[in-house]
Amino acid sequence: MFLKPNHPDVQDVGKTLIGFNWIGGRELEGDKALFDARSAVDNRDVVGLFPESGPKDVERAVKAARDAFEPWKNTPAPIRGAIIGRIGRILEDQKEKLAAIITREIGKTPREALGEIQEAIDTCQFFQSEGRRLYGQTVPSEMRRKELFTYRRPLGVVGMITAGNFPVAVPSWKIIPAILCGNTVVWKPSEDAPTIAYLFMRAMIDAGVPPGVVNTVNGKGANGAGQYMIEGIDKGHFQKFSFTGSTAVGRLIGEACGRQLQIPSLELGGKNPMIVMEDADLENAVTGALWAAYGTAGQRCTSLGNLILHKPIAEKFKTLFQEAMQNKLLMGNPVEHGDDVVYGPMMNARFGERFMEHFKHGKQDGAKLLSGGAKWDEANRDARVLGHIGNGTYMQPALWDNVTKGMWLFQNETFGPTVNLVTVNDFEEAMACANGTPYGLSSSLYSENRQWVEEFKNRISAGMSSINNSTTGAEAHLPFGGNGWSGNGTRESGIWVVDAYTRWHAINEDASGRLQLAQIETDYGKAPAKPTDWGQL
Ligand code: UN1
Fold it and tell me: Backbone dihedral region of 468: left (phi > 0), alpha (psi from -120 to 50 degrees) or beta?
């Protein structure tokens, strides 16, 4: 591993890692120039230097993955599982160091960064033992001396593109089950977080993942490695594709995979609703809403979008929520102030610019802005903002009131620290609002009323629902994914994801020594000549 001194002003924070693509177990430079992976917290801090990859790099990685496929597929699943267990232990041993890189690179608070590594450890622990299951079935045959079996078979080379907001946890949801099932991988990590991706690769190599089983190509999405990966679908490079990111890019991948008659795994955007009913524990609901809206600076696909308030408590909730924003919501530099801040910067300036655009839509539609609307800077910062913020994109928390279903704000994902307050008269209207967007990822209801809870669970269109908990924070062994524009119905995590990375193989084994014809020669038995006369009853 190569490191060099950082910019003189930020040398205390850490060194600059000289990064590479991993192809066929080797660290390779790309066909294009290097790019700086600059810290979201302070852009003077160059966390890593990485190759911007060209189409040839993608092809090299695909070849390495193809060559590695047969031997890896033939490695017994319990051995593949044992290697995965070792990855988990390395992540556990290096947890603090890796979390510090996440904080530097994308600006997550230390406790969230540790949680992120933990999510990858949980995934390794889960799939380690799956290597000793990966069950098929024995199925009874309709013929004598014939046996039927099912086996899970790997698919081949899996292409993966992941986002920067969960740069280890989400890739682990894909890579770990994919390789456990015997596939090989070409992964394009986010250009916002290549350093942590590189270190995750190193953990895999150290654990004994053989050369070529997992490969990385770094670089941009559009006009970069991401685009070349997607173009590779039509060239037949991949037998499966898995993507976490925007709905627009998900559609492109879905179209290309459709042409190859493949089902990609797509985890896309969200506009997640939270309903707070009149009987809710308001203190708990305020805490949950505050975290879901502003935690991770709103940069989770599970972040809260529409906060739907039952009219009898709407005013009281609003007051409590605004008080909490004033008293509990510290923001700023997570490298300097650690977990004192609830949220840090946007992952990069581009995300900040995109976030700023939503303000003009809100104003045009007549929503009322109660808070926020700008970046924090030296002139407007208040006591809630901690540390040096001059070299990053730090957003004020936004709060919109009087939002209704037809507004742009209600319907579109904003991916930043903002939330819409929507007041409703009754439970029916609350459900109509909660189901009133094209998305359906996460959702939440705060209520003690069992009937409402039951109705909500049955009628909400979402892949994930919380009762009396926030919209974020899915556990690593439950199915993760969404409905509508949030995905294509595939799920990640837990046992369910195994279906995404294997296909079923049905085998029949005939020991009769002759050709037995199913359905035609099957002895289904006969009714007796004199059946019971049921008419006598
Ligand atoms: C994402 O934002 O893409 O449920 C994943 C959560 C996290 C994962 C989010 N465990 O909020």
Answer: left
